[in-house]
Amino acid sequence: xxxxxNGETENGVGxxxxxxxxxxxxxxMRLANVEALKxxxxxEGEEVIGYTKLLEACEVMxxxxxxxxxxxxxxxxxxxxxxxxxxxRVYLHTDKVNASRSLIxxx
Length: 107
Description:
Blueprint: H1 22-43, E1 48-50, H2 51-60, H3 67-80, E2 84-86, E3 89-91, H4 94-106
Antiparallel strand pairs: 1-3, 2-3
Helix pairs in contact: 2-3
InterPro entries: MCU_fam (IPR039055), WH-like_DNA-bd_sf (IPR036388)
GO molecular function, one term: uniporter activity
Protein name: Calcium uniporter protein
């Protein structure tokens, strides 16, 4: 295939990698921090933690810069189904909560 002069082939697939923008780099770092946060929480072996502990972990792991960002991020995790927020508790294994809920509903 012939190139178009700007490092891309005719089908739009780049022959050379493009430069990452600052916004993309920040997003990538945040995603890496989220994965590290999930691993850290899961390694502790607890299925339920306090909401305050989640907020503190978000700040320590660099996912959030302050309490307000940590609270917003906790809501995002809840909305995405990564954790389940209920009152002042955070359920880390949403799959187990959903299985229990299905079992109760079937009775």
